[in-house]
Amino acid sequence: MKDNKLLTMAFESSCDETAVAVIADGREVLSNVISSQIDIFKNYGGVVPEIAARHHLENVNHVMEQALTEAGVTLEDIDLIGVTEGPGLVGALLIGVATAKAVSFAHDIPIVGVHHIMGHIAANYIQFPELAPPFTALIASGGHTNIAEVTGYTKCSILGSTRDDAIGEAYDKVARVLGLGYPGGPKIDKIAKEGNPEAVHFKRVFLEKDSMDFSFSGLKTAVLNHINSAKQKGEEINRADIAASFQQAVIDVVCQKAVEAAKKMNHGKLVLAGGVASNTKLRETLRKQCDQEKIELYIPSAVLCTDNGAMIGCAAYYKYKEGKEGDLCMDAHANLPF
Ligand code: KG4
Ligand code: ZN
User: Fold this and answer.
1) Among 3, 66, 90, 318, which one is most buried in terms of CB atoms within 10 A?
2) Ligand 1 pocket test: which of 276, 278, 307, 335 has the largest number of ligand atoms within 8 Å of its C-beta?
3) Ligand 1 site residues, Cβ closer than 6 angstroms
4) What is this structure's pTM?
């Protein structure tokens, strides 16, 4: 406890970011250190789970020390340890969980395991001090695509999910076939600004009437088929036009479903979360549609959209406040239900 504030140190290592943050009273970020492995995985065209785990192991102690130093505190000041326990790459998660448990045991600090998606949602509490549940949330990341109703700081029910690829996964795969490199989301975001979103009409997949589920694998295949058929005919490919047209097909569906869900849940608030929430066109489009429908839209800054420790610390804080403490039997889970 420092200045009467509860200090949480939180670990996030579910994919390719080794991240540790120190936050005060759940919402005040004292440090948020992120060591990204993007430069390593550029050479592979995607994340290699074993290599990611090895780098987490090499980095985690340094990242933790930096987080403590930047926050101006020591382990003696920490009141609570938070850690992502799943879902994610199990070898990667294990490094965060094992480190968090070791610190918890050695310094006798309570520990709380966090569901990664609850962490993404919690990024909004940090960005917007006035935000409180209930609200509707769209979680759009590399591993998840969900529409959820958040009824409490630790209570959330899933209204819809992807039936195949996650939205970020679709961005990354399309970027790969366009030769844009990894990670594809930011590359498509950038190049699409120079393209015509109506150049190629890719089918919008809404699924059954009123369904809040998503499907992106057909769209990904349609992009691949379009490129292959153009190549066979010897036609030149305009990467910016294809990227813009793909992105428009994704955004048309995602925004319509999210806004419809927000209207149906009737809380007047829509919260965006996850790495894809940093997408420029998605943010702009949702902003316009929410303004028209008089729905308050919350989107975190880009650094809080992608994986980070602060969002995990915030989610851990609220679990702890509700008495949902973990213990040293905690494990890492590749698949973790809500
Ligand atoms: O939330 P996140 O950091 O990790 C997961 O929990 O999966 O999300 C990473 C995903 C990647 O697929 C990445 O390509 C995508 O977010 N992404 C973007 C943008 N920035 C990151 N997708 C579209 N536009 C962006 N600007
Ligand atoms: Zn994530």
Assistant:
1) 318
2) 276
3) 15, 141-143, 168, 171-172, 183-186, 189, 274-276, 278-279, 306-307
4) 0.95
